[in-house]
């Protein structure tokens, strides 16, 4: 019986063996075909995908060039900062990773999702920046929980640091994240989403020099996107260092003198055009923009009635007031309308047609010459000179003095100002020029508009003998090793249309403004330094008087702006200054003291330095 069973089992096995072998052969054949397809037919594609998953290219940002003042004081530095990002390809499941991350950061997960959604054009293998410049506490928390956060990365990048905050903020500028519009404009220049770019001031004007060249490294990563090893590295090349013409000590002094008021101060070396000071008040802190300015703070800046984001030194346009009398005096003397001996009578007003034009001095100045008219700022004298010249001849001289056009300074958004002509008015309004309008223009009112920088260029040209320089903010460029790459030289923009005799008369009048017995800016006088200057009052609205003859007291926002332009020393000018104080009313009391303090600070320091050099050759 057992033998029968054994034979039966053997027959069953033998009968089924071929079927099993066929099935095995089919399975092995299918496996072979699949392996052949994966390794031979699709091998190259899967090899590419595999390498992309384990080998990545990472950018190494270039340290941005540093910025110094003319004496080598560091103004803008770089510091290490930690940027939190997420590589979407490695962060699966993304929703769970984001929820965990939001809990650790104590933020709403919706904000992180919105940040990812806004990062258009970022490769799934590149990190999307969720927060820039995280603090060390958050960094420590992320490090502890890194195994619960696949795809979450923290990259160290150099971050801009503005060492003196609001000092020279408008001149130096700030960085911001490159916009889509800027990416299109700079296509091919290597910018990517999330990169920083100069947005204002020198940071923007000299972006190409400061930026440097990014490097990169090839790394091997694991399934969570964490770096296992570095395969190859190409070092980044640091940007070039800028040495500005700015004088940090003088700039800080100017900012402190403008504290609490809206206005601007500009100062330059008259013999070269080098800008020493370019201050606008109120100012702002460029550091606020580096990591992204919150919407609330931006709205505060944008809605501030004193316009902190406006660079008033180059963008503020104001009627030049009596500082324009320098132009009228030059035009009158050069055109032969007046000369050194010409005297005109000022009873305190000037009647033209059916209108009365008042002088600032109610009792009048009596008989005045051009030198005395400048010294005491007699309106009636310049009404009469302007009337004889006409609007178009005045405009020609004003433009030759640098008014009514950008100065050419290497900063964006410089205002043009305005010097009106008869043709301009007809074109603009369709109405003919009225002769009475020339009287207002002759004393810097009416349609006239100038920036503090334009007035600085004009007074500097008067100081240096008639040469009009293009304002210069960049002194030299060096590489990281200290080698000079570029040395800037003064650029002559033109010359004042004046003879030596005319210039001498104008200078005598400006000397009297500060040092004369009846000068309008005697408050600016210094015992050891001879300052020359001109005050100005820029009317916000027409000047009126009450029935009693007294001046009407106006609310602050309707008061006149205060001007003062000056240079010193009188015999060998080393510094020229232009000051505007919005709603300061009188140049003598609001603007002249600021110029005096800057001139005193600069010249006494320079004198002490020269003495030290002589003593210790």
Topology diagram in text:
Layout: H1 2-41, H2 43-54, E1 55-60, E2 67-68, E3 74-86, H3 94-105, H4 109-118, E4 128-131, H5 136-144, E5 152-162, H6 169-172, E6 175-177, H7 180-185, E7 196-198, H8 201-205, H9 207-211, E8 215-221, E9 227-234, E10 241-244, H10 248-257, E11 263-268, E12 275-281, H11 287-290, H12 295-303, H13 312-315, H14 325-334, E13 344-346, E14 349-352, E15 355-358, E16 366-368, H15 370-376, H16 379-389, H17 391-400, H18 422-429, H19 435-442, H20 452-464, E17 467-469, E18 474-478, E19 484-487, E20 492-495, H21 500-515, E21 532-538, E22 561-568, E23 575-581, H22 587-615
Parallel strand pairs: 2-10
Antiparallel strand pairs: 1-8, 2-3, 3-4, 3-5, 6-7, 8-9, 10-18, 11-12, 11-23, 13-16, 14-15, 17-20, 18-19, 21-22, 22-23
Describe it.
- By secondary structure, the protein is of the alpha+beta class.
- The protein folds into two domains: 59-244, Penicillin-binding protein 2a (Domain 2) (Alpha-Beta Complex); 248-615, DD-peptidase/beta-lactamase superfamily (Beta-lactamase, 3-Layer(aba) Sandwich).
- The chain is built from 22 helices and 23 strands.
- Strands 2, 3, 4, 5, 10, 18 and 19 form a seven-stranded mixed sheet that branches. It has a five-stranded antiparallel sheet with strand order 12-11-23-22-21, with helices on both faces.
- A hairpin with a 5-residue loop joins strand 2 and strand 3 (74-86).
- Helix 10 packs antiparallel against helix 22.
